[in-house]
Automatic annotation (TrEMBL):
<comment type="function">
    <text>Reversible hydration of carbon dioxide.</text>
</comment>
<dbReference type="InterPro" id="IPR018338">
    <property type="entry name" value="Carbonic_anhydrase_a-class_CS"/>
</dbReference>
<comment type="similarity">
    <text>Belongs to the alpha-carbonic anhydrase family.</text>
</comment>
<keyword id="KW-0479">Metal-binding</keyword>
<keyword id="KW-0456">Lyase</keyword>
<dbReference type="GO" id="GO:0006730">
    <property type="term" value="P:one-carbon metabolic process"/>
</dbReference>
<dbReference type="GO" id="GO:0008270">
    <property type="term" value="F:zinc ion binding"/>
</dbReference>
<dbReference type="InterPro" id="IPR001148">
    <property type="entry name" value="CA_dom"/>
</dbReference>
<dbReference type="GO" id="GO:0004089">
    <property type="term" value="F:carbonate dehydratase activity"/>
</dbReference>
<keyword id="KW-0862">Zinc</keyword>
<dbReference type="InterPro" id="IPR023561">
    <property type="entry name" value="Carbonic_anhydrase_a-class"/>
</dbReference>
<feature type="domain" description="Alpha-carbonic anhydrase">
    <location>
        <begin position="41"/>
        <end position="265"/>
    </location>
</feature>
<dbReference type="Pfam" id="PF00194">
    <property type="entry name" value="Carb_anhydrase"/>
</dbReference>
<protein>
    <recommendedName>
        <fullName>Carbonic anhydrase</fullName>
        <ecNumber>4.2.1.1</ecNumber>
    </recommendedName>
</protein>
<dbReference type="InterPro" id="IPR036398">
    <property type="entry name" value="CA_dom_sf"/>
</dbReference>
<feature type="compositionally biased region" description="Polar residues">
    <location>
        <begin position="22"/>
        <end position="31"/>
    </location>
</feature>
<feature type="region of interest" description="Disordered">
    <location>
        <begin position="22"/>
        <end position="43"/>
    </location>
</feature>
Length: 266
């Protein structure tokens, strides 16, 4: 059978279009893995990409490790040798920006604020929220949990956890939420100073244990300081965060697996 040159060109173009349509991902949440030829789904808090599947989705992570977070603060031992958290939070330290990363509302800090742990300096990098809380204290789950994430020069993490309960409105929260709302994936520059001390309870007694990040890659070896005393925020302040974040953006309780859990002495 003979074809004209124009017919041949048309057949080639139609074939190329058909091939492109067949290789287009069905969803923006699925990314083709060139090594295995399988669709990769990003983690979430529910369904096929929820916490029980994180270890399958994030194959290079620690999400299937033995010493994971969060846990229930129970069966803890009083330790009078635990020192007060060595906080170095300054009035002039600035929040660089705020982002809705699709998992939480996160405030990213410029350099300045830090804590000292066993002679090592851990810089405050970011603060984000979980609603309701991820950690529980004697089985009690709070409406909100704030994570202050610190990193040292070796890439090791220390996180201070602050629980929040419904009560009087919080002026520091009013400031933080003045830059909201943000759509998922949206970022807004802040470039304003924020004194983190104003967003902490007066009583700095705490629970301490070694665990992991509570989101992929679930990196282990994290120092956790869970403050015993919650701060108070209004129902309206809790609801604003709730509207912007995924419903129940918390990971379930993880096994303690023989880890020692300590609490500061009275």
């Amino acid at each position: 059978m003979k074809y004209s040159i124009y017919t041949l060109i048309l057949l080639i173009v139609l074939g190329a279009c058909k091939e492109n349509r067949s290789t287009t991902p069905q969803s923006t949440s699925e990314i083709e893995n060139p090594e295995h030829g399988k669709a990769h789904k990003h983690w979430s808090y529910a369904g096929e990409t929820g916490p029980e599947h994180w270890a399958e989705i994030e194959v290079e992570s620690d999400c299937n490790g033995k010493f994971q977070s969060p846990i229930n603060m129970v069966n803890y031992k009083e330790n009078n040798s635990l020192k007060r958290i060595d906080l170095h939070y300054a009035e002039e330290t600035k929040i660089h920006d705020v982002t809705n990363n699709g998992h939480s509302i996160q405030y990213n800090f410029e350099s300045g604020d830090y804590i000292m742990v066993n002679g090592l300096k851990y810089d405050l990098k970011q603060v984000h929220f979980h609603e309701p809380s991820e950690h529980t204290i004697d089985g009690v789950r709070y409406p909100l949990e704030m994570h202050l994430v610190h990193i040292n020069d070796s890439g090791q993490y220390t996180v201070i956890s602050v629980m929040a309960k419904e009560g009087a409105s919080s002026l520091p929260f009013d400031f933080l939420e003045s830059f909201l709302p943000l759509k998922a994936g949206e970022n807004k520059k802040v470039d304003r100073p924020f004194n983190m001390n104003h967003n902490l309870p007066e009583n700095k007694d705490y629970f301490f244990y070694t665990g992991s990040l509570t989101t992929p890659p679930c990196t282990e070896g994290v120092n956790w300081y869970i403050l015993k005393e919650p701060i108070t925020v209004s129902l309206e302040q809790v609801n604003l965060l709730k509207e912007l974040m995924p419903i129940n953006n918390y990971r379930n309780e993880q096994p303690q697996n023989g880890r020692e859990l300590y609490v500061t002495g009275n």
